[in-house]
Amino acid sequence: MKLSLAMVDLAIEYDRYGDSLLRELANSSAATQNAPGGLSTAFGEN
Description:
Elements: H1 2-28, H2 39-42
């Protein structure tokens, strides 16, 4: 029960902040996108 409550809380947090966090990640990872093991590979976008 605690796990599912935590997952719901995480989903709410993501719903609130997810878009801006992803935008920030995309901006900050622009320099590392071509590096091996960078954020782009971590998110499977290569």
